[in-house]
Write a structure and sequence with these properties.
The structure is a single chain. This protein has a single domain, classed as Ferritin, CATH 1.20.1260. It is 73% helix and 2% strand. The chain contains 6 helices and 2 strands. A two-stranded parallel ribbon has the order 1-2. Helix 2 (19-46) packs antiparallel against helix 3 (52-79), helix 2 crosses helix 4 and helix 5 packs antiparallel against helix 6. The longest helix is centred in the N-terminal third of the chain and has 28 residues, at 19-46. This is DNA starvation/stationary phase protection protein. Residues 26-158 form the Ferritin/DPS domain. Belongs to the Dps family.
Length: 165
């Protein structure tokens, strides 16, 4: 008799009973990345100060990156058989990122706000990739890629802000 995994054409996992748990971990990362992209776009519109133009352009690049990572994470969750919800209500309920006020943000404060949020999401993803790796190395690889990119962005923002440590 074929296994359920083979019958529905889902990728086999080291522990198929953990499929839902992995899906929930991936969904949490998805929510953080979507929230990060929405916050980044808000900051993009509200940037003020001498560096506002360059930050406006940089935020576009970061938002595109976060959206691409969110897409990769969501596609992995669906691939393993987990339904994801990236709609506003689900994202708001599923992320711990604090919203920003819809006011003008001075360039130096904007860099700090973005750096803090990127670091927060990177730390959360890093914690999840350890748990996911115990069950599914392919999903862990997706999260490693997300962590790698977020930590690179964090470094670039940190250098830009003058906080080199």
């Amino acid at each position: 008799m074929d296994s359920l995994t083979a019958a529905v054409y889902l990728p086999p996992l080291d522990n198929p009973h953990e499929r839902a748990a992995i899906g929930h971990e991936l969904a949490a990362v998805l929510h953080d990345l979507v929230a990060l992209s929405l916050t980044g776009k808000q900051l993009h519109w509200m940037a003020a100060g001498p560096l506002s133009h360059s930050l406006h352009l940089q935020l576009d690049e970061l938002v595109d990156s976060w959206r691409a990572m969110a897409d990769t994470v969501a596609e992995r969750a669906v691939t393993i058989g987990h339904t994801v919800d990236g709609q506003p209500a689900a994202v708001a309920a599923g992320t711990g990122l604090t919203p920003i006020a819809p006011d003008e943000v001075q360039d130096n404060l904007l860099v700090h706000e973005v750096t803090h949020r990127v670091a927060t999401v990177a730390e959360r993803v890093r914690a999840r990739l350890r748990r996911v790796g115990e069950v599914d190395l392919v999903s862990q690889d997706v999260l490693i890629g997300v962590t790698r990119e977020l930590e690179k962005q964090q470094w670039q923002l940190r250098v830009q802000s003058g906080a080199h440590r």
